[in-house]
Design goal:
The chain is α/β, with parallel strands linked by helices and 385 residues long. It is built from nine helices and 19 strands. The structure holds flavin-adenine dinucleotide and FE2/S2 (inorganic) cluster (FES). Residues 82, 96-99, 112-115, 117, 119-124, 143, 163, 166, 254, 278-281, 284, 335-337 line the site of flavin-adenine dinucleotide (FAD).
Length: 385
Amino acid sequence: MKKNIFEDFDGYNDILEEIEHSRKYGINYSAERHSPAQFINRLHPPVLSLIVSDIIEETSSTKTLRLIPDDGYLPPFLAGQYVALTLEIGGIRTSRPYSISSPPNQTGFYDITVRRVDGGLVSNYLLDEVKKGDHLQSSGPAGHFYYNPLFHDKSMVCIAGGSGITPFMSMVNEIADCGIDRTVFLLYGNKNSGDVIFHEKFQAISDRFENIHYIPVIEEPPDDYDGSRGLITGDLIKEKIGNVDDKTFYLCGPQGMYDFCIPELVKLGIPDKKIREEVYGAPANICDYAGWPEDIKAETVFKVSVNGGRTLDARAGEPLITALEKKGVIVPSLCRSGECSMCRIRIISGKVFQPKGVPVRKSDRQFGYVHSCVSYPLDDLAIAL
Ligand SMILES: Cc1cc2nc3c(=O)[nH]c(=O)nc-3n(C[C@H](O)[C@H](O)[C@H](O)COP(=O)(O)OP(=O)(O)OC[C@H]3O[C@@H](n4cnc5c(N)ncnc54)[C@H](O)[C@@H]3O)c2cc1C
Ligand code: FES
């Protein structure tokens, strides 16, 4: 008779015994059956209950909210990751991602640092309404914008603009606190000196640690300013970091910064695989985006029928997820940038605009799924959630 090769594997008899046991007594056959799931849930909880333990004023338009766990436990994260806060504001339930600005070695709290966006729903609420002691809800830590020792150089060039500084605050503090053998060149661009977040903190760290180089760049500085001026150009990068070949580049900031800095990096000969970009939300004005149909204005309203039932209005210039949330239709979301796939919906009929480069899976494309956080109606739509 042919030998069963599986018999040679360690634990073969134990598995046979378990199968026998489960046939006899039903599926709850192992005493430890639930423990891996419990462990994994603690590492990757879907929802966190948080309390605002402190509020720190950083600039006139920016505050840090210090968040402690309601149940004494915060899951670990990698410096550069974010949490998505879920809030109900004026009857609208929505969520927004915020990078964790505290370092991962600080396990007692998460800091998030929020800058005001003119007319923004959540940033204004967080800055003006939230008080110490308030309860907030968030996702667990998520995102792919972090240092990976297998693929990235030990020398990091971090290019930040405005509130895009927050993931770098976490990375730099972790390196300094834990004595990590990595070099950072942090180029931080802002329009005015008053906009610079964490200036004194970065200055103090770079004065103390020779592997941390902090280079603020001010577009419109006062006359007596003696630091770097203008934009973060290729020439400035080269001047400050020297050799570009042994470094990985990380960018986080507004769309305009990517549009300007990435071509500058390409001119310096930096290959694509060495440029890492954090997602930073849906485009601020989709109608200016390449490929947007000229005859459709941001204010044009289309009808959206949901699950073959109710029909609601959606503006062309607004992501579908926002139109749905305004009418009380909840779609789960995390990155709000087209990256995580959490907000997928199916387009049964009608047409949507999606910015170039949104990573939709081939099977999703084939069956009509889109990311509702970066999809804009160009037609009356029928959708399925
Ligand atoms: C991964 C990730 C991490 C983030 N981390 C941070 C962070 O650490 N700190 C922080 O302050 N923000 C961060 N953001 C941005 C944040 O999620 C919100 O988008 C921002 O607070 C605006 O939300 P809002 O509800 O106030 O504005 P909304 O009501 O969503 O938007 C109002 C208007 O402003 C435009 N708009 C939206 N966001 C911006 C923007 N950033 N700049 C200019 N115009 C904008 C919109 O197109 C819209 O017209 C992050 C975003 C992502 C994707
Ligand atoms: S919320 Fe992540 S893709 Fe839409």
